[in-house]
Design brief:
This protein is an alpha+beta fold. Helix content is 25%, strand content 30%. The strands form 13 sheets. A 4-stranded antiparallel sheet has the order 1-28-27-26, with no helix packed on it. Strands 2-3-4-5 form a 4-stranded antiparallel sheet, with no helix packed on it. Strands 6-7-8-9 form a 4-stranded antiparallel sheet, with no helix packed on it. A hairpin with a 5-residue loop joins β14 and β15. α2 packs parallel to α5, α10 packs parallel to α12 and α11 packs parallel to α15. It starts with 8 loop residues before the first strand and ends with a helix. 38% of the residues are buried. It comes from Taxus chinensis (Chinese yew). It is found in: Nucleus. One of its GO terms (biological process) is DNA repair. Pfam families: Ctf4_C, Mcl1_mid, WD40_WDHD1_1st.
């Protein structure tokens, strides 16, 4: 403790056996009250020299609980009785209640009119201290109640039992508002640790000892965990105490040490080691001092636990302001202003006694005062001072803590996940007093075999991909720095794993992996990037406090706080996407989440789309629509089958979400038994359609987004002259999208929504799909709609024909051939003699050179596609799909005779379409081939192949006649000669 020591003195010595003892300060901080196993209650006066304490001997067994409020002192004992005394004299007033089993905890309400008492009995008794009557009995705990705490705002009572369950009770109804199962440690094996809980002085958070030797803070209204203080205690925490201003908290536990934490920074600022465990703490209400008592009944005072250069624990004291009558001060301060003002509406402000009791009057007075000052165009310093103090009493939203996607909280004695994703999981567990880490893959057939390793650093986060795994540990004290370690799955060299230790004061908050790089974001808002071999490649600053990070191939995303939370409690988050290989910031912006929620998962889909998932169960994906926007593609509320279900996110692809279904109160999966992945379909949160075709509309939007993404990738690949592997996928997606559109058109026809049907028909990609839509309209006896569909078809055929002609003209001019010898229709005459054409190869050259030249140019077109080749290929494939089966399915209710008549009417119109025959650059092509090319049914490459086949057949025929255009192939004997 930095050279200082705390002298403990005996108070309740009892045969040197460890037992529960209690300590607390009175309201003014003038006296200390202690109680212990010797059945006595002592009132100490910390004077110098110390005077003899006042002793209260009214219990027959050990005193296990004491509470004080104003001039009343209460005590509970193993003798099953609750007694009241006057304070400070200590006169015995009487028994207020009795239990059938020992009592473990007592607590006064803010006004002192209610006393809560509980213990090994079933139920918590709320006792009216005026007449000692039982106001209510609260029953919900299944174990002994070890701690009670009234909300400073007098709305809730919090209780904790020996099994670690904490319950919020609503005082007005006596019913549980929130139940937090097993959030605190089980204290059956350590009876001197009581799972003490305590409200922060402003009542906005409840401090609870956690199961991982940490202190967890839970929100007042939602009972959600908002922050944790961890990394200091090596054993379970039993007691804690807030400083008067709520800026600091003291904790003690079975590891025999007391720690002082600065809550805002979530760091311990001082600690002290004792010989025996402490079982009770009490912060002086008006000073920088902490009273302690150990399991042997020895007590002492730790003077100045907060250093003098830091903010005093009494600055901005909330409770002292309330006790001194803050409302009365406001009334007296502004009384003259209200009397001098001529606002008649101020009369009768104090007539409502309920407003005075509920504390609403000061707010009204401030509002009236502010309005008067604004009207007069002035505002004095007192107004500013009191308004700012009032604002400090408002609930303040807490910024979300950093986390690692795919990691679960670590619990003593249990296995937990450091990482869980679509590839596998990293598990940490304790064995023989040491931590161990195992790596498991979902697909055991991949052949990865990663040996387990001993964890000497205390890793709390990890990430896994096909190349390796990275681990991060927080800083522990002033001598153990935060560590980053990387382990490749395989390497050509030995000793290929590496580790990095960060400076004291900087610790890892999240880790990420990609293609050949490792990244860590730290508490100093640094982004550190390393190579796969451990080379430090870059260090740069981020825009705000770090939340999490994730990687995919060359992309790295980091989420940060863009600003403090809004007054409504909503988090304000931002994100940055980096291309590590190109060392560029690819994208940045705000990260949307649901109102009142926090981010729980951030990562990429299997196709590389940035995605996020929040605590309200909403999944969003970043698309390039509208120049980059987030699209909600999944909602847990729409998919869950029971109210107690919660989805824990794992990953996603273009069509499905992979998650683990948990049953509340569990919000994350356990390692054993192995989690079972739930596969759910992506679904946009659309409004209910008047057609009743919500599923089809959802499929339409989802497939449209996917098609847009695929086409954009194909265009980018064509622009870079790279190979295109998605052409067939694009065509299949267009066909699927047309099938969905045709079903929607059928629904619109049945629902008499003809305008909407026309809009859907205009979205069809394939000509035969439009032909099918025309047949569908005729079959449903909608001639006007069929006429509009036919007009769309004519426009489409004309447009495709013009595109085909323009493309073939560009090809005939040699614009897309990469060979140094450009082929031209005017320069090639397949049926002429070689000597008649000066551009044709010399007869001495091998006869298939021309065909080889065509093949070379053909290959160059296939290996280097561009926008024109992609467009023609798409045009040709569109004419090959058959969507008539979909039309038959949608019109199965129409008479077969009607179908025949429709076919006889529509088919001639389709055959006599407006398409014009384009000019054929190959003059000697057959008539059939020319007609097919004119109709768009044969591609350029097919035409070339047909020309080649025609030429070869013609050559063979003329060879047999002795008049071929190519010389005959020499025989083997001729070659030898």
């Amino acid at each position: 403790m930095k050279g200082r020591s705390i002298q403990l003195q005996d108070a309740h010595k009892h045969n040197e056996t460890e037992s529960v003892a209690c300590i607390l300060w009175d309201r003014n901080g003038k006296h200390l009250i202690t109680a212990g196993a010797d059945n006595n209650i002592l009132i100490h006066s910390p004077s110098s020299p110390p005077s003899k304490p006042i002793t209260l001997r009214h219990h027959k067994q050990a005193v296990t609980a004491v509470a004080i409020k104003s001039t009343t002192l209460a005590s509970g004992s193993l003798d099953h009785s609750v007694k009241l005394y006057s304070y400070p004299g200590g006169e015995f007033q009487g028994n207020v209640t009795r239990f059938t089993l020992p009592i473990r905890s007592l607590a006064f309400s803010k006004s002192g009119e209610l006393l809560a008492a509980a213990g090994d009995d079933e139920g918590i008794k709320l006792i009216n201290t005026i007449d000692s009557s039982i106001a209510r009995v609260l029953k919900a705990h299944n174990y002994s109640v070890t701690s009670l705490a009234f909300d400073p705002n007098n709305e809730f009572l919090a209780s904790a039992d020996s099994d670690g369950t904490v319950i919020y009770w609503q005082l007005s109804t006596g019913k549980p508002m929130h139940t937090l199962k097993k959030v605190a440690p089980n204290t059956d094996s350590v009876p001197t640790c009581l799972n003490q809980i305590s409200w922060r002085p402003d009542g906005e958070m409840l401090a609870i000892p956690g199961r991982k030797n940490e202190v967890s803070m839970y929100d007042r209204d939602t009972a959600e965990k908002v922050l944790s203080l961890k990394g200091g205690h090596s054993d379970i925490i039993g007691s804690l105490a807030w400083s008067p201003n709520g800026k600091y908290i003291a904790t003690s536990g079975a590891d025999c040490q007391v720690m002082i934490w600065e809550v805002d920074r979530r760091q311990d600022i001082d600690r002290h080691k004792f010989e025996k465990p402490l079982c009770s703490l009490a912060w002086k209400p008006n000073g920088n001092a902490l009273a302690v008592i150990d399991v042997l009944g020895r007590f002492g005072v730790w003077e100045s636990p907060v250093a003098s250069h830091m903010k005093s624990p009494t600055d901005g004291d909330v409770e002292s302001v309330d006790d001194m009558g803050f409302e009365e001060k406001l009334m007296s301060k502004y009384e003259e202003v209200l009397e001098d003002s001529d606002a008649g509406s101020l009369d009768g402000i104090g007539d409502n006694s309920e407003d005075d009791e509920m504390g609403r009057l000061p707010r009204r007075v401030l509002q009236k005062k502010s309005s008067v000052m604004v009207e007069n165009g002035e505002e004095d310093n007192d107004t500013i001072e009191f308004n700012s103090h009032r604002d400090s009493l408002k609930p303040k939203s807490t910024m979300q803590e950093s986390f690692q996607s795919g990691a679960t909280p670590q619990e003593p004695g249990k296995r937990s996940f450091l990482s869980y994703n679509m590839l596998g999981s990293i598990i940490t567990f304790e064995k023989d007093g040491f931590s161990h880490i195992e790596v498991e893959f979902h697909d055991i057939g991949k052949g990865f075999r990663v040996p387990s390793m001993s964890d000497y650093f205390g890793f709390t986060m990890a990430s896994l991909n096909e190349s390796g795994s990275v681990y991060g540990s927080p800083q522990k004290g002033e001598k153990t720095p935060s560590t980053l370690m990387y382990r490749p799955l395989s390497s050509w060299a030995n000793n290929s794993e590496w580790s990095m230790r960060f400076p004291i004061g900087e610790e890892v908050k999240a880790v990420a992996l990609g293609s050949g790089w490792v990244a860590a974001v730290t508490s100093l808002n640094f982004l550190r990037v390393f190579s796969e071999g451990g080379l430090q490649k870059s260090v740069h600053c981020l825009d705000g406090p770090v939340i999490t990070a994730a990687g995919h191939e060359d992309l790295l995303v980091v989420a940060t706080h863009a600003s403090s939370p809004l007054p409504s409690g909503d988090q304000v988050l931002g994100f940055e996407v980096f291309n590590v290989s190109e060392r560029t910031c690819y994208l940045s912006g705000r990260l949307p989440i649901s109102p009142g929620s926090h981010l729980t998962w951030l990562g990429f889909s299997e196709e590389g789309l940035l995605s996020s998932y929040d605590s309200k169960g909403n999944l969003r994906v970043l698309t390039k629509e509208y120049n980059g926007c987030w699209v909600p593609l999944f909602s847990a509320d729409r998919e869950k089958k029971a109210e107690n279900e919660k989805f824990w996110m794992v990953g996603l692809n273009n069509t499905q979400v992979f998650c683990v279904t948990c049953k509340l109160p569990d919000t994350y999966p356990q390692v054993s038994p192995k989690p079972i992945l739930s596969v759910l379909n992506l679904s946009l949160p659309l409004a209910c359609s008047d057609l009743g075709a919500d599923d089809l509309e959802n499929e339409l939007l989802r497939d449209s987004l996917l098609l847009s993404q695929m086409e954009r990738k194909a265009e980018e690949a064509a622009a870079c002259s790279s190979e295109i592997h998605t052409e067939n996928d694009i065509f299949k997606m267009e066909a699927a999208l047309d099938r969905c559109l045709l079903r929607l058109i059928a629904n619109c026809c049945k629902g008499d929504k003809l305008v909407r049907a026309t809009e859907l028909a205009a979205m069809l990609s394939l000509e035969k799909s439009l032909q099918g839509a025309i047949k569908l309209a005729n079959a449903m006896k909608l001639p006007m709609l069929a006429e509009r569909f036919n007009a769309l078809l004519e426009d489409k055929m004309l447009k495709d024909s013009e595109e085909s002609i323009a493309y073939k003209k560009s090809i005939s001019n040699g614009a897309y051939f990469d060979s140094p010898v450009h082929l031209d229709a005017k320069q090639i005459t397949f049926n002429a003699n070689p000597g008649d054409n000066p551009h044709f190869p010399h007869p001495e050259v091998k006869p298939n050179n021309a065909s080889l030249e065509i093949k070379a140019n053909h290959a160059s077109l296939e290996t280097k596609p561009n926008h024109a080749t992609l467009g023609l290929s798409k045009h040709n494939k569109r004419t090959e799909v058959d969507t008539l089966e979909v039309i038959r399915m949608e019109t199965n209710s129409v008479q077969s005779e009607g179908k025949k008549s429709v076919d006889s009417q529509v088919q001639p119109e389709l055959n006599n379409g407006p398409a014009q025959k384009p000019s054929n650059p190959f003059a000697k092509a057959s008539n059939a081939s020319a007609n097919q090319a004119a109709e768009g049914n044969v591609s350029l490459f097919n035409s070339i192949k047909q020309m080649k086949s025609t030429t070869e057949n013609e050559g063979k025929r003329k060879d047999r006649a002795g008049t071929g255009c190519f010389p005959k192939k020499p025989s083997k004997q001729a070659k030898k000669k």
